[in-house]
Amino acid sequence: CHIRGLIKMDILNVSNLTFNYNNNLENLPILKNLSFNVKSNELVSIIGGSGCGKSTIIKLLASIEKPIQGDIVINSISYMPQSDTLLPWKTILQNILLPIEIEKGDLIKEKDNALNLLKRFNLLSYADKYPKELSGGMKQRISLIRTLMNKGELLLLDEPFSALDAITREDLQKWLLDSLNSLQKSMIFITHDIDEAIFLSDRILVCNEKPLSSFKEFKVPKDTTFEETAKLKKEILKSVKGVEDEKI
Ligand SMILES: Nc1ncnc2c1ncn2[C@@H]1O[C@H](COP(=O)(O)OP(=O)(O)O)[C@@H](O)[C@H]1O
Ligand SMILES: [Mg+2]
Q1: Per-residue model confidence (pLDDT) at position 31
Q2: Which protein residue's CA is at the shortest distance from atom 13 of ligand 1?
Q3: Given 3.40.50.2300, 3.60.10.10, 3.40.50.1100, 3.40.50.300, which CATH number is that of 1-76+152-248?
């Protein structure tokens, strides 16, 4: 149900999505009649406890799983899975070109694009190095650049920074935000970290029920004061915690 030619405002429109892994509606679904959208150039985070269905949503959007019911209207995506690793026997440049190699695309033409992206993000000198020669933060940047090689309008990032230490993580959040602004992309970003979600997003969707049939939604105002951000964080935390408490 991926339909081309979306109206300009919405880059993604999900309506009445129902899903479980057994393809059988008699079992309790993970998602039930879930609807949401993402607008052009909008940055959206999804937060929620482990197992609430965040990765499942992303896999449905990436067509890795098929919905039992409902529609997903989307133009084109670039997907970075939850555990995305570089191939150790390939150089950084070869790793970035992997999506093109797999799709049997024009490697010569795309090599220039890959080098341009590396240059743009100050990583050109690493093109011929191997993953083991890079730090964790560098490797994660390379994985993100590889995701950007797909040219989809909507970036789907499933907890890309969760394995990194706090300083590297903050550094990468800024880097990602700058990259997205200059590339004019939309994004769905999965995270456990409320500060990260507030920093990166225009809107935060909290999974707060099981099965998931709607998100609790928080808009992140631009240029907020420290107090306003703290208040927003508290509200989101309450919403996330509400679900955690129910589980106990
Ligand atoms: N391939 C699969 N087959 C069966 N069940 C799965 C599969 N992947 C995930 N699940 C189950 O679906 C639920 C949602 O998983 P997931 O979307 O990965 O959660 P999250 O990313 O929010 O932690 C969990 O209960 C999980 O155990
Ligand atoms: Mg997950």
Answers
A1: 95
A2: 51
A3: 3.40.50.300
pLDDT, mean over the chain: 89
Per-residue confidence (pLDDT) for residue 246, from 0 to 100? 55
Task: Please provide the DSSP assignment of 109-133 as one string.
Answer: HHHHHHHHHHHHTT-GGGTTS-GGG
Other beta carbons less than 10 A from residue 73's beta carbon: 18
Closest ligand 1 atom number to CA of residue 207: 22
Is the minimum distance from the CB of 31 to ligand 1 under 6 angstroms?
no
Q: How many C-beta neighbours within 10 Å does residue 67 have? A: 17
Measured CA to CA in angstroms, residue 164 lies from 44, 53, 146, 179 at distances of 21, 22, 18, 19
For the segment 148-152, the average pLDDT, to the nearest whole number, is: 85
Ligand 1, atom 24, residue with closest C-alpha: 51
Q: Would the CB of 210 count as within 6 Å of ligand 1?
A: no
Closest listed residue to residue 213, CA positions, set 48, 29, 74, 12:
29
Q: Which ligand is nearest to the CA of 50?
A: 1
**Ligand 1 site, residue 184, Cβ cutoff 6 A:** no
**Numbered ranges of CATH 3.40.50.300 in the chain:** 1-76+152-248
pLDDT digit string, tens, across residues 5-49: 444 578 999 999 999 998 666 678 999 999 999 999 999 999 998
Contact 197, 191 (CB under 8 A): yes
- Interval between CA 127 and ligand 2 midpoint (Å): 30
Which ligand does the CA of 211 lie closest to? Answer: 1
Is ligand 1 within 6 A of the CB of residue 61? Answer: no
